[in-house]
Structures are given as structure tokens and as C-alpha cells.
Amino acid sequence: MIRESMMKSFPENDYARSNGYVPKPYKSSNPTHMQLVRDILDELGISSLKGMPGAYYKPDIDAWTFTGCSGLAMPVYNVEGQIKRLRIRMDYMGIKKCRMKNGFPSFKENGEDIYLDMSGPFLIKDGAKERIKLESFSGKVRPFQSFYADTALKEKGIIKNTYMYGCESKNHCSIYCNSGNNMELCIITEGEKKGQYSNFKLNVPVISLPGVNSYMLLFEKDGSGRCLLDYMAGKGVRIFAVAFDADRDTNAAVMAYYNALLDRLVENGYAAAGTEWSMELGKGLDDLLAKGGFPQFIML
């Protein structure tokens, strides 16, 4: 699945690499951001990456490079199966100067040891992990973009990108669909990794939302007056099943968005179904499928 998905590891930024911010024994074999850019420019026979989110020009070195945190680079696909954007599932490495401690990369923050894993920062108290939130680590998955508004000008009502020739990349849905899929049922879930794996295991098309609160992206109409769901219906989809995480029974926000999406589907004339499974079998649809489970579908 990984080979076919075109997911790739995305290297730590060049500044972090050159200044030794990556803790031992981690050693990246990936090219640097600048080398990635040079390879792309050479292969395409062009001299600029204007218009590509994530790329920007550094006048002090007279060269193009990429921004972005290190992590897992995941393609975002449109209805035609073309890659339209990238999103990075951050590994939280290379942002802070880390060292290895108790088997985890860690750094000091206000005198405390902050540890990192793929789920984010945590403390170790009484031998157990205690999850914490740090503003600089907010958001496990981020759009691959080269945009950050100048804060001083923003306060004056002026939006200016601090990245020269950089581009913003708003959130988009991703469609995972292969030629051999059963097109009658389409699952709607949250997160590219979850969408990719669910498509691989269930052999049905899967739409992944960038977040459960962004479900209205499904209903945005283009210039032809059609939305993403209309295009999927045109490919043969008859039922749209919503498969948000099983913790919605204890997470009021997730439950509210789950119900709101189901209501909106019905209001717009689409055949809709909910999904259920035991939290003991996994929080997300991908966790459930990885353990050999299968969701229960409830038609509305």
C-alpha cells in the first residue's frame, strides 16, 4: 500500500539538519530541501517554482527551497486521481533541539523534559505518558504550504506573505479510489492516512476530510454547479457512509459534526449511512480494519 500510495518521508528542514537539531541515533538519508528543489527543476527543465505551495525563493542565497516540518508527506487526490496538494503528518522532529532520553527525543521547556513521539509532546510522570499541548506543536497534520502572514502588517489589515513567491494551501478533501473498487458505496472519514488505508482494505472509494469540522467542503460547488459528492455519484456511488472515530460517544464535538454531516447528506438528497463499532476494537476506522474488524452500517 505504501509503495502504491506515493506517500513519502519528508526531510527535516535544512537549518535543523545543518545545526544538529535531529537527535542521535536518527540520521536522515533523504535529500535536503534545496536538493529536492534542484532535482525537480532539472527534471522539469524550469527555473522557478512559482505557484507551487511549499516552495519559496530565498534571495539571500539566490535559490529556491521548500518550507515545512519533517514528517510523512501524503498526496491529496482529486476526483480524477491526480495529485492536487500535499499534506504533512508531522513527526515533531527538527523543530526543537532534541536529545535522546528514556528512549525518546526530548528537549527542555521551562525546566521540564518534554518528550516526543508520533502523537506529539508528552511528559513522563510516575512512569506513564501524560499528553500535553504546546502551541508550537499544534496540529498533527498540516497543509504543505509556503505562507505566513507578516504579523505587524496583519494588525494593520494588510496581508503580506513572509515567504518570497510562496503560496498558501487551504484544506482540501482527498479521494482514494482505484479502478477495481466497488463504486456503489463511498466512505467518508477524516485524515489522509486513514482514507488511504481504508480504501486499501475495503476496496471501496474513500473521501478523507482534513478534519471532521470541514465537512462542508463536500458540498462546495464548482463552476459547473456540482460538488464533490455529485462527481462521486456520477462515478456510480449510491450510498455515502460516514465513518468518524468511535470516540464520538465521549467527544461531543465529533458527535455533533457526525450528525451534522449525516443530516446534510439526507437534506441534499443523497442516500446516507452511519457506521458503528466498538471502541475496544480501535478508535479510528483504520485501527478497526487493521485488527480484522468491520464497521456496522446503519442506513438512514
Please provide a written account of the structure.
The protein has helices spanning 2-5, 14-18, 33-44, 151-154, 192-202, 228-234, 252-267, 285-290, and strands at 8-10, 55-58, 63-66, 71-77, 83-90, 99-101, 104-109, 112-117, 120-125, 128-131, 141-143, 174-176, 185-190, 206-209, 239-242, 271-276, 296-299. With 300 residues, it is of the alpha+beta class. The chain has two domains: 2-89 and 138-154, no CATH class; 174-299, Rossmann fold, CATH 3.40.50. The chain has a six-stranded mixed sheet, with helices on both faces. It has a five-stranded antiparallel sheet with strand order 6-7-8-9-10, with no helix packed on it. Strands 1-4-5-11 form a four-stranded antiparallel sheet, with no helix packed on it. The model has no long low-confidence stretch (mean pLDDT 90).
Shape: globular
Q: Largest sheet, order of strands side by side? A: 12-14-13-15-16-17
Averaged pLDDT, please?
A: 90
Task: Give the terminus-to-terminus CA distance.
Answer: 32 Å
CATH topology title of the largest domain: Rossmann fold
